[in-house]
Structure formats: C-alpha cells, structure tokens
C-alpha cells in the first residue's frame, strides 16, 4: 500500500512539473502553463510583454496622471492601434453598449440622450499621432490644433456604427468635447463629413468659464446642465476616464481603449 501511495505521489509531481493537472473528481485533464516573466513557452524572450501590462494598467485606470507613452512602448502602441486588436477591442465595447441600448424602453419624447466624446471616441486622431510617436512625444498644443483645424480626422468605425444604431433606436445624440469654442465650426464640419450628420447638439469647452478646470469638472458640469434642461442621459461613451467619471454620468458608461494619452 505504501508503494502504491509513493508511486501515485511521484506521478503527481511529474505531471505537475510538466504543466499538467488532473481533475480527479471529473476525470478531466488540462494544461497549466506557469507564468514566465517576459518569456515564451520555450523560455525565449518576448519583447513588449511589459508594454501590454502597462496598457492594461492604463485601461483599468490603475496607472494615472501619466504624461507620455513609455519610449520602449512606441512600437507596441503603434502596432496595437494600427492592427486588428484595437478595432476588436472597440467593437467589444460598442457591441455591449448596443446590447444595453436595445434592452431599454425609451419614453419617446426626445429627451433620452446618449453622450459621445469626440477625440478618440467619435473622431480618430491616429493620423496625427502616427507622425508623433503614438503618444511617446510630449503633447504639443500648437501642432495638435493645426491638425484639428484641418478638419480631416476620420471616424472611428465602431463608434460610427454604434451612433447609427442608436439613432435608429430613437436616441438623441449629444457630443461633449474638450475642444475649445474656437474649434466648434471645424469640428461640426468634420463630424458631418464623416457621417455624424444628425445630433442634438455639440458642446465645446468655454475657455473662460472652465479655465484651469479639469476635464472631469468641465464634463460633469455640462452634463448637469443637460439634465437641468430635462434631458435623460441614458448612455455615455468616451475614451478617457475623465469622460465617464464625476457627476451626472448617465445610467451607464462605456470606456473605449486609448493608450496614447491621459486627460485628468
């Protein structure tokens, strides 16, 4: 009996060392691969593993108040944004938003609204950031405003799809952006030129009223004004945590991915 027990124990150790575990209650076997920091199954170094962890921390709002993308993560962020995964991640968010929207019974008085942020939510500044290190370079207000003033930012495909679906469901759309009032006209032109043609209003930042205020303070205040005017914020979507934190955020919020910059 002791010999059988010893053999069973040795077998269990050998199996565990090879990354296998047995579910003795159900007769199932499955593979368990031990975590190897920055290495693959063969022990070889995998570049950018730490960058994917950094992006996870950013999206989960565990890493905050950062100024630039780490220099060593430029290629990682660029590959993510230009590749399939960024589109798939955005789709996962917008599909969940649409699923939620379909479950609602709207009053039908035109007061049910969905708030959309602009930059990296409705319009993409990826053409600009592709020329500026995908967020590795420090923010240059002059250069970025020159880009915005061109009015050529493309729509984010998944956000545009969600926007059209929400209109068909009977929602009114409100765009709430941190862009200044001096860029309102070009932003309106840009939105309409890429397909965002129907909406309740576009709210831009009054530089006098909100000078020195955070994005959270500004957007909370403007959402409060909407609700005071009788609107019901049913949904709220943005790429920054500052788009969906604070007060009067709406019944549900949705966060799109954005590893290029952080706005408090």
Report on the architecture of this protein:
This protein has helices at 2-17, 49-59, 74-82, 84-102, 126-130, 141-148, 157-169, 184-193, 215-228, 241-244, and strands at residues 20-23, 28-31, 112-116, 172-180, 201-205, 232-238, 252-255. Helices cover 41% and strands 14% of the residues. The strands form two sheets. A five-stranded parallel beta sheet has the order 5-4-3-6-7, sandwiched between helices. Strands 1-2 form a two-stranded antiparallel sheet. It has 264 residues and is of the alpha/beta class. It has a domain at 90-255: Rossmann fold (3-Layer(aba) Sandwich), CATH 3.40.50.1000. It has ten helices and seven strands. Strand 6 (232-238), helix 10 and strand 7 form a beta-alpha-beta unit. Residues 1-19 form the signal peptide. Pfam families: Acid_phosphat_B. Keywords: Glycoprotein, Signal, Storage protein. This is Acid phosphatase. May function as somatic storage protein during early seedling development.
The CATH homology group name of the domain at 90-255: HAD superfamily/HAD-like
According to CATH, what is the class of the domain at 90-255?
Alpha Beta
Q: First CA to last CA: what distance?
A: 67 Å
Strand order of the biggest β-sheet:
5-4-3-6-7
Using DSSP, what is the number of strands? 7
Strand content: 5-15%
Fold-level CATH name of the domain at 90-255: Rossmann fold
Broad shape: globular
| Radius of gyration from the alpha-carbon trace, in angstroms | 24 Å
Major sheet, described briefly?
Answer: 5 strands, parallel
Q: DSSP helix count?
A: 10
- The CATH architecture of the domain at 90-255 can be given as 3-Layer(aba) Sandwich
User: Mean of the pLDDT scores?
Assistant: 88
Report low-confidence residues grouped into runs of 5 or more: 3-26, 30-41
Order of helices and strands: HEEHHHEHHHEHEHEHE
Instruction: Decide which structural class fits the backbone.
Output: alpha/beta
Proportion of residues in helical segments = 40-55%
């Amino acid at each position: 009996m002791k010999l059988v027990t010893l053999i069973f124990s040795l077998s269990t150790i050998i199996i565990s060392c090879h990354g296998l575990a047995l579910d003795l209650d159900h007769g199932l076997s499955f593979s368990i691969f031990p975590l190897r920091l920055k290495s693959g199954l063969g022990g070889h170094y995998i570049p950018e593993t730490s960058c994917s962890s950094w992006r996870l921390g950013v999206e989960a709002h565990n890493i905050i108040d950062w100024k630039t993308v780490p220099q060593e993560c430029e290629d990682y962020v660029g590959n993510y944004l230009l590749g399939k995964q960024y589109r798939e991640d955005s789709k996962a968010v917008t599909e969940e938003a649409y699923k939620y929207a379909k479950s609602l019974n709207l009053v039908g008085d035109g007061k049910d609204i969905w708030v959309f942020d602009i930059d990296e939510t409705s319009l993409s500044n990826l053409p600009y950031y592709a020329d500026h290190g995908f967020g590795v370079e420090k923010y240059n207000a002059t250069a970025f405003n020159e880009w915005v003033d061109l009015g050529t930012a493309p729509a984010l495909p998944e956000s545009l799809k969600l926007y059209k679906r929400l209109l068909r469901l009977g929602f009114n759309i409100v765009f709430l952006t941190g862009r200044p009032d001096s860029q309102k006209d070009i932003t309106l032109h840009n939105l309409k030129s890429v397909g965002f043609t129907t909406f309740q209003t576009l709210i831009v930042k009054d530089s006098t009223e909100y000078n020195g205020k955070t994005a959270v303070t500004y957007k909370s205040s403007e959402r409060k004004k909407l609700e005071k005017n009788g609107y019901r914020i049913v949904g709220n979507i943005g790429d920054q945590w500052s788009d969906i934190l604070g007060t009067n955020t709406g019944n549900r919020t949705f966060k799109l991915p954005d590893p290029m910059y952080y706005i408090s």
